[in-house]
């Protein structure tokens, strides 16, 4: 009796070989269906529903480190000034936007990039309100004061210190003169747009004994209001309400007030 036709080394769960494709027949590729908006929101924002409300107030975030002419490492959370400036131009031209809310939680960063953002804010024709949450340190201070009205959270902090350089520094008098001129630019801008005198700002900037590895001053919430850097302590609700009031009264942008 002949033996059955069985392979001597069977492979378990071997997939069936598809039949050969006739020549000239196009290859059919099954496209993956697009993910639903809920799935995309979970992946990107960690929530299933994102508020979709058309408002006359535009919110601008200044977070992490302000990136200027040099690209920072990828692990750094950054705000790129080349992204912020076009947004400000669009906000200025958009007739549907009546006011701007700037939310800051920044450690500072590039001096010229920070000053460029501050100069753009203060030259807008629409009212601007700033809100410091967490921190508005270093070059974040000029951005915070470049508004019609500024708020700071009760536990938020602002660090005022002299300008510093990183990288190659040529040890010649011209280097220190350049630093001094840049320092004067920052001081002059803050004094012009806040309620603090130049003498008091320099005292805070060059104070010793408060920072372990630096000179300067840390201001927490009410302290920033007390010295005249920030207008008042408040949060999101107060900032939005104040901006709505400025819009209703037809108040112009920050630059028109100085």
Automatic annotation (TrEMBL):
Biased composition (Pro residues): 1-25
SUPFAM superfamilies tied to this protein: ClpP/crotonase
Gene3D superfamilies xrefs: 2-enoyl-CoA Hydratase, Chain A, domain 1
Coiled coil segments of this chain: none
UniProt region (Disordered), positions on chain: 1-35
Protein origin, superkingdom: Bacteria
Pfam families reported for this sequence: CLP_protease (PF00574)
Name assigned to this protein: Translocation-enhancing protein TepA
Origin species: Moorella mulderi DSM 14980
Gene that produces this protein: tepA
């Amino acid at each position: 009796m002949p033996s059955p036709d069985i392979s001597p080394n069977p492979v378990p769960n071997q997939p069936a070989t598809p039949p050969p494709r006739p020549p000239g027949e196009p290859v059919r590729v099954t496209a993956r269906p697009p993910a639903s908006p809920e799935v995309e929101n979970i992946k990107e924002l960690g929530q299933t529903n994102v508020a979709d409300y058309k408002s006359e107030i535009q919110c601008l975030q200044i977070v992490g480190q302000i990136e200027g002419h040099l690209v920072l490492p990828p692990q750094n959370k950054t705000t790129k000034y080349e992204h912020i400036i076009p947004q400000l131009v669009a906000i200025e031209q958009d007739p549907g936007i009546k006011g701007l809310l700037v939310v800051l939680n920044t450690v500072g960063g590039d001096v010229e990039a920070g000053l460029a953002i501050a100069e753009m804010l203060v030259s807008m024709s629409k009212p601007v309100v700033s809100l410091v949450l967490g921190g508005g340190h270093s070059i974040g201070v000029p951005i915070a004061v470049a508004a019609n009205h500024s708020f700071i959270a009760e536990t938020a902090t602002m660090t005022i210190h002299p300008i510093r350089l990183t990288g190659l520094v040529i040890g010649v008098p011209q280097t220190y003169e350049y630093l001094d001129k840049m320092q004067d630019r920052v001081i002059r801008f803050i004094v012009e747009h806040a309620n603090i005198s130049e003498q008091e700002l320099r005292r805070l900037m060059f104070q010793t004994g408060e920072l372990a590895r630096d000179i300067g001053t840390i201001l927490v919430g009410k302290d920033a209001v007390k010295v005249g850097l920030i207008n008042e302590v408040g949060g999101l609700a107060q900032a939005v309400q104040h901006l709505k009031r400025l819009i209703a009264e037809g108040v112009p942008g920050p630059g028109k007030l100085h």
